[in-house]
């Protein structure tokens, strides 16, 4: 009896991992439960023991991807020594993670997914996490005297919006060195501004 709970958890996770690959390859709309069942090496009927629908499987996939990205960003930001390095770690980790997690990226950019309420909740929750992360870095920079910020909330939102606005073009870029150069240029503008002093 005790072994059935971990086995159930393992099976459920195996289905999620298989679905993750299928959704990344075909997209949410074209992927089918048959595709997921084949990839998971399960009968389609057994998938319905764990999940009610393809939407529920997709929700699990994108929620796990979001949790992975948050954990990566949090670790990278915590490991950086200065607020400036924390910003670089935040932007670079965010971009590299989004290149890897195709389903989460799709959930954030594909408009046809907006009709699913869980996608809207996921977007809101994730956006709030990013804005709070940026606000924390700004706050630390203020306390250390590294930054001058007149409006913390507005500045955090502007940085978040800039990062979001660049994610699609950066996700298509395959040269990681070029992405890092672009990030450094963006951060140079953020830290030093445009006006000659």
Written account of the structure:
With 197 residues, the chain is mostly helical. The protein has 9 helices and no strands. The longest helix is centred in the middle third of the chain and has 28 residues, at 117-144.
Overall number of strands: 0
Q: Cα distance, first to last residue? A: 72 Å
**Strand-and-helix sequence, N→C?**
HHHHHHHHH
What is the strand content? under 5%
Major β-sheet profile: none
Helical amount: over 70%
CATH topology grouping of the largest domain: Tetracycline Repressor, domain 2
* Principal-axes shape call: elongated
What's the architecture of the largest domain in CATH terms? Orthogonal Bundle
List the SSEs and their pairings.
Blueprint: H1 4-30, H2 33-40, H3 44-50, H4 54-79, H5 83-100, H6 102-109, H7 117-144, H8 152-172, H9 176-192
Q: What's a concise summary of this model?
A:
The chain is an all-alpha fold and 197 residues long. The chain contains nine helices and no strands.
Main attributes of the structure:
9 helices, Arc Repressor Mutant, subunit A, 81% helix, elongated, Tetracycline Repressor, domain 2, 197 residues, 2 domains, mainly alpha
